[in-house]
Design brief:
seven-stranded mixed beta sheet; about 20% helix; globular; 7 helices; eight-stranded mixed beta sheet
Amino acid sequence: MSTDMRVKIYGCRGSIPVAGEEYTRYGGATSCVVVEAAGRQIVIDSGSGIIGYANDIASQADPHVFLFISHVHFDHVNGLPYFSPMYRPDATMEIWGPRNSRFGSIHDTIDAMLRPPFHPVPMFEMLAKKEFHDVGEADVVYFLKGQKRPIQLRPAHPDDRDKVPNPEDVEVSVHCMRGYNHPKSGVNLYKVVAGDKSVVYANDTEGYVHGDRRLIQFASGANVLLHDAMYTEEKYVSMPVPTQGYGHSTVEIATGLAHKAGVEHLVLIHHDPSSTDDYLDSVGELAKGLFQGAVMGRDGLVINV
């Protein structure tokens, strides 16, 4: 079964938003990507780019937002307090994300962020109906035909094995891989599957010797792989401040993994805030030389799968 998919980048900058003439072509908003398939819109991360998505759906009545958060470093959640559907009484927000060592649930994590003195409006005063779901590597979220709300199961667990829906009943599914190479609490990597097509979002991940074997398997054969490429190898190893261990990848790491996973298209994301348009042009040329299907992510980029 073939299903059309569409990927739109609303933000692909790392660490902090940036603005200025030298950032106009690639944009300065932080992480937010929307994958659309079978009439569903799956939002991944709520960096400052999610404000652009809010503008796109502002005229919708009764918006129902399905948001998957990779982790709660600021550049991946700094748009959520200003995401207009959070304040609409006709809106529903379903939010998935990882637990961490400080808080027992994604709900408690976001609740701690959205309260004074960090933010003037606490979450209970935001008018949208909000539902939170902890999600990890064992879980799959299934969006089924004829059902607005998805179901979350653990297919390998005996309690859930008999509940796994038939493939023909599934419009879209979201799979999770837990990455442990991003400080300090790790990160969720997501794969959105619709029919025979898939999109993998692997942000804030760093490579291993001979490639991240688990991620290679997770992304195997994907139509689109969005992969962190914050640095070039030169910056990654240069003294006096190498960026090894920061939890981000190089162009060389990303393209090498794309080859090993056999993906069709590679989109490089999480650009360093110091990387200007001209610099990213040169990085794009480097990436193209290493993997023919590589493109540089930019705000507003649309990829039809």
